[in-house]
Amino acid sequence: MSTITIPNPHVAKLEVDHYYHIGFNSGMDLAGMFGDVKLVIFGGANDRMKKIAQLFAQAFYPEIDVDSIAPIGETSRFHMFKVGNVITCSHQMGQPSFSILLHEITKMLSVAKAIDPVYIRLGTSGGIDVDAGTVVISNKGFNNLLGTSHQFVAAGKVIERPSEFSAAVYEPLYKCSTELGFKTAIGGTMCCDDFYEGQSRLDGAICEYTEEDKIEFLKRAHDAGVVNIEMESCYFGAFTKYLNIKAATMCVTLVRRLNGDQVVGNTHAWVDRPIAVVLKYAEGLLGLKRHDNFVPEEDHH
Amino acid sequence: MSTITIPNPHVAKLEVDHYYHIGFNSGMDLAGMFGDVKLVIFGGANDRMKKIAQLFAQAFYPEIDVDSIAPIGETSRFHMFKVGNVITCSHQMGQPSFSILLHEITKMLSVAKAIDPVYIRLGTSGGIDVDAGTVVISNKGFNNLLGTSHQFVAAGKVIERPSEFSAAVYEPLYKCSTELGFKTAIGGTMCCDDFYEGQSRLDGAICEYTEEDKIEFLKRAHDAGVVNIEMESCYFGAFTKYLNIKAATMCVTLVRRLNGDQVVGNTHAWVDRPIAVVLKYAEGLLGLKRHDNFVPEEDHH
After folding, report:
1. Domain with CATH 3.40.50.1580 in chain B
2. pLDDT (tens digit per residue) in A21-44
3. What is the CATH T-level fold of the domain B1-116, as seen in this structure?
4. Contacts of residue A23 in chain B, CB cutoff 8 Å?
5. pTM
6. Continuous segment of H or E residues that includes residue A30
7. Which residue among A146, A205, A263 sits closest to B103, beta carbon to beta carbon?
8. If DSSP codes are grouped into helix, strand and coil, which group holds residue A155?
9. Which CATH homologous superfamily contains domain B124-286?
10. Residue A42: which H helix or E strand, with range?
11. CB distance B103–A46 less than 8 Å?
């Protein structure tokens, strides 16, 4: 049982630390607002994070009026919601956007003295060689050169940090997902800085490699242990591991990349699967009774 | 006078090309919807792009009901608006997010046969050694190792593309900005993949370098020709140069980084300056008479 330690001496010297992009600062009553947070759920889109906040309210906090749930703080970049012991917050697309949110929300939860908050990213991804609709739970992040570290540049120097998620989170998520009957895989998630060229798609505005190059690279990634591809998790795994924050990523796959690149058709039925899993997982983490009966749309009978 | 050529033979082979993240596809009447586009304005936030669309309507298209302006296409990621010959569209934060939008909107405008559309990104940035409030117009993009190319990985290989903007755009923008009486600079814009560590700030959740490392790096960047720092333009300059699209970035600075890192206080007055400049520039590009008298808030007397 511990709070998040921020290992940056400069932050302690600030009279007030402004979390500019989320609209809070260390001079506010953060302990009163966020001291009870046990679970932080991240995902790309604003509306989706609102929906997840509403589902958590229905599941665990029936006293909350679902229609009253609105974003808190600054809303021009991210939309953050708080219901009971849970924050849901959009991170938009890509590691740089998510990194801003992670720095600010983590400093905020440290000041708020939240106890052992668990971070989970829910998203969509391209599977390499699994059926579309598979729930993939990441145990580590791969960069786009197939290393299991996040590489970035700070003050002109290249820094490398291992990207690993917490077995204490991904193992129970895996159990919950299989118990719900979803096709589920656990493994590495490769993170790329673009949807088209970065993910070796053939259908971008620019493409300087051949289909053979693409397939060869995807097979090489598969052999290295990569199950799916998205745009956030290598950074996420590196940041949370460095700060000893328990974290995992759980993405549904929308396409099997060895068969094609384009995302088309009715994919919305699958994207609720990670939500069903995280609600089930939260029963144990929050220690609260379920009041709902949420089932992803396509699994209604 | 020419349309955009997409140098990717795979795209031509697709029966229908789905621009997944913006919600259009090549089977639609894109020429009817977008064939008349002459100017595409990009910026981070949804609401800001709506405001700019409204200002363009008031300035050049008085027949458009400003209250009727609403986002078109898919709105869960980006918000795109079309008024007359102008598109405004949010790109959120960071190169990966912007890259998705650039690939899709460019393929779309190519199919629409838009003639010589000019791309301009408006944004905010940190200045290295200019007063906060300065309008900085980029002539080239720098990566965070101070090279003037964008480096990325595709199909497992590192690719490097020079990042340069069009004098045909940045020179008239500079003229318009100085004529409006704004402090204006023209020069290099360094692009980083994070707001905190990536930009050598001292106030992130993690910071492994010293204040001396930071100042030494910022001075080195300054000496190399970097005027300001943001998170999109190195990719933007490389993508548009590769495809022969006339483009520029124009950002106001919110902080002088040699003096500090935190963005605080009333910065909103400055952020309208690039809008005033691009409206003035558009008079010539669109060849239309102005019907408004837009002045940034802080410059009202």
Report:
1. 1-116, 124-286
2. 999 999 999 999 999 999 999 999
3. Rossmann fold (3.40.50)
4. none
5. 0.95
6. helix A30-34
7. A205
8. coil
9. Nucleoside phosphorylase domain (3.40.50.1580)
10. strand A39-43
11. no
